[in-house]
Amino acid sequence: MFESKSGVLLIAGLFFFGLAFVSNVVVPVIMYRDLPEKTALEVVNGNLRYQFEDLARRYPEEFKKAFGEPPASETEQQKWWNEKCAEALLAGRKIYVGEGCWHCHSQFVRPVSNEDKRWGPVSESKEYQNELQRPVMFGTRRVGPDLSREGGRRSNDWHAVHFFEPKRLSDKSPMPGYPWLFDGSPDKPNRRGLVLIAYVQWLGSWLESYPYFEQYEQSPLKDIPLAETKPDDAAAK
Amino acid sequence: MNTESASTPLPRHDDLVDERLVSLYFVTALAYLFISMLGGFLMALQLVHMNPLRGIELMSPGRWRMIHTNAIAYGWLANAFLGALHWAVPRLTLRPVFHKGLSYLIYGAWQLVVLSTAVGILLGEAQGLEWGETPVWIDPVAQLGLLLVAINFMAPIVKMKGPMYVTLWYFMAAFIWTFLTYAMGNFIPQYFLCGSSAGAVGGLFIHDLVGLFVTPLGWGLMYYFVPILLKKPMWSHGLSLVGFWGLAFFYPLQGIHHFLYTPIPMFLQHGAIVSTIAVEMVVMTVVINFFVTLRGTGRAFYDNMPLRWFYTGMVFYFLTCLQCAFQTTLPFQALIHFSDWVVGHAHMVMFGVFSMWLQGIMIYLFPRLFKTEWYSKTLCEYHYWLSAVGLFVMAADLILLGVFQGFWWASLEMWEVSVDGSQPFWILRLVAGLSMVGGFLAFVVNIYQTWLKSKSVKTTSAA
Q1: B290-314: per-residue pLDDT in tens?
Q2: Are A130 and A90 in contact (CB under 8 A)?
């Protein structure tokens, strides 16, 4: 059996592979069957909308070129913004993958090594049950910091300058610049630049502690439902 | 196999092995190795702030990092393995592969897959799956290619009667595993799953790609070439059984150890850790078997160039696997995960072990393919020492750096401290990488000169 063709093919080749597949893949799938996968539209939230509309105000011409203009009626406008947000998230994720961002930045906070003190709450499975984590962007290497709680920490124009040339903001950063996400200067992000900024601003925007991730317990936004409230209102209180 | 060869005359080597195809695979593989080295070089320059190609979209280090890994896995390793398989499988089974035309079709199709992967990645079309960045529209073609490879090589194996030699167990299993692994890793997390369970599949894919595609082909070739070079059988048949079945059982169970401390359920993480430590025991049996086989003929390590590459690779194999058993434990993980330790480990496996073995095989086969001795023994020595020392320095440097980085991060220093502190290590890594490139260039020059020599030998003998 151990030296026969059928033994090698069936037991080693198929059965052991299948056994590993069941234990490594089927078991977690069964465990997470109660966490349905959300679409990009379903993960759009007030925090992201705030940043996205800020992009539209900050870079009006570029934004118009990339996404067009919102419709006139108030109700249709809401729908339009949400749809454009979802569209930007999917496109932004594609840039994030295509540029290899995920090879130098992880997207999960571990419960060890003081990571929750540096970045915020430890990652949970439910955070990853959505279309934008297909395939999941956990990452395996951190040359730069984890990004899963990056949203809202820095402003859109900070990100624009940083993507254009990281050394302008952090002179020892080994991160490469991405001038092709812009039309010549950091104040003119093109569609690719805008969607990538939106994607990065989304990371962690679903958490109660947003954007004060490290001061998790004392977050002033703790009791406010995310979808209806813009963070600037909350900050004003 | 033995009973057959006793009664009937052995088939001629020329009827079994298509030497032109073997050479073609090897030369193509070396071209991809060079491309991969360029990608690594570019990334290394970027890290030490010396990238001369800043701001050029198609030369972005992030994209070239993916070229670096994919060119190694699918350009260099896969092509070099296919070349070596076209030599070893027909000679072991005493039967040619399924179809000569199919062999060339596979060669062409596979280059198409690798080149379009490279183009896709450079254009920003990568798939978000480590080691599987091949754009999604190429995946079905690659899958079909793997099926054809399996058919082409399984045909002679299936026709054999009686018990098979160790090498063929590994090869048979590898054909099945590679096909299944590629399908699992490239399609399931893309189309069927998301989140943590997709992470589990991703971990299993990274892991199986090394363990179920590269490792069995590599060990199969070692079991084939080492006894031939030493002119004696393996020390223990029993231990090779333990090695094969231990690998087959324990190796695929460990995928999740690439994502420890993620939201993947903790009991699954513990299972992956235990089986990782178990496979280290299995690795010991295999390494012991090979080193005891060497006993009494240890001189060959110095005199016999291919054997030196093989056994150096085995030393690195032992070191990486030992390292694995430690780094997979949770206290180690807490410190070294995400750091350059992992990068050092990956280089030790991919270059220190499997690239060493494949280059050793090439050093053994090129003179046979060209029908002449190596042009220069000195260049052979340069190739070996520059590669081996370069790799050792790079791995040691990065592994040590990983420990520093882990402590900087855990101590909540500013992030910049970890990046600044890495600079001296990254510069040394650049130098070590250049040494490996130097070794590679010595090899290429030597191959070219040997080829020229073989041409002139042919013309003089014809005249």
Answers
A1: 999 999 998 999 999 999 999 999 9
A2: no
